[in-house]
Write a structure and sequence with these properties.
By secondary structure, the chain is an alpha/beta fold. The chain is built from six helices and nine strands; from the N terminus they run E-H-E-H-E-H-E-E-H-E-H-E-H-E-E.
Length: about 240
């Protein structure tokens, strides 16, 4: 089975890119499954099931970061897709804090960025870009050629080894190279009981969970402990 993990900020066109990929995967005679991970609302699973008739699931991360939720559910999702007889599992996850990265070793990591989001966006998205295999740039028809070149250069500044592909996600122009990268990616390996073999995240997750994450509401670093951030000191650890 091939695994694609697609991340990126909201409204960049992730779903449109994956829709065209699914269409081409099915046209090639392979069966695909789709998993959507979002915070509190998603209907992409219903759209994919209705349009393509493929197995789909969705998970609401709720209090969890969507990328953290991806880590939690990916093993079950791979097992589910295998039992459905699928050769490709496509996972779309919402990247919110831009500090986390959902990509795992042995899978195709793909970030979708929109060219209209500002020339400095690639400098802001962190490991979601730097740990990806492919950066897919959408909405290229809405910016000038000069802006497209600057956007590409910004991506290369952050991630010089990441492959860049410009696509027209509305009409599916430029999607074929993404399928070539998918075919070149390694297969997910499974145990005899259909569970995936040990898989690891690429890179390191954030350094820890702060007390705000676990429910403390008080304002001011003096009310918190662990990894905190005073205004005048950007790296500070305070014991309980």
């Amino acid at each position: 089975m091939k695994l694609v993990i697609c991340a990126g900020p909201a409204t960049t066109g992730k779903t449109s890119v994956l829709r065209h990929m699914v269409r081409k995967i099915l046209a090639g005679g392979r069966k695909a499954a789709f998993l959507k991970i979002d915070v509190q609302y998603a209907d992409e699973d219903l759209a994919f099931a209705g349009e393509f008739g493929i197995p789909t699931r969705k998970v609401y991360s709720g209090e969890l970061c969507p990328d953290h939720c991806n880590v939690m559910v990916l093993g079950d999702a791979l097992q589910w897709a295998r039992k459905e007889g699928c050769q490709v599992l496509l996972v779309e996850t919402a990247g919110l804090c831009l500090r986390c990265s959902p990509y795992v070793e042995g899978a195709l990591g793909m970030i979708v960025l929109e060219a209209t989001s500002g020339m400095n966006l690639p400098l802001k998205v962190g490991p979601m870009l730097s740990l990806a295999d492919i950066a897919v740039v959408t909405k290229i028809d809405r910016v000038s050629q000069a802006e497209r070149e600057v956007f590409r250069a910004r991506i290369q500044d952050v991630a010089p080894l990441v492959k860049i592909r410009e696509v027209h996600a509305l009409h599916g122009i430029g999607i074929d190279p993404l399928l070539d990268y998918l075919d070149q990616s390694p297969d997910v390996l499974f145990n005899g009981d259909h569970t995936p073999q040990r898989m690891l995240l690429r890179g390191n997750p954030p350094v820890g969970t702060c007390t705000i994450c676990v429910g403390k509401k008080e304002i001011g670093w003096q009310s918190h402990f662990g990894v905190v951030r005073p205004l005048e000191n950007q790296t500070f650890y305070r014991g309980e």
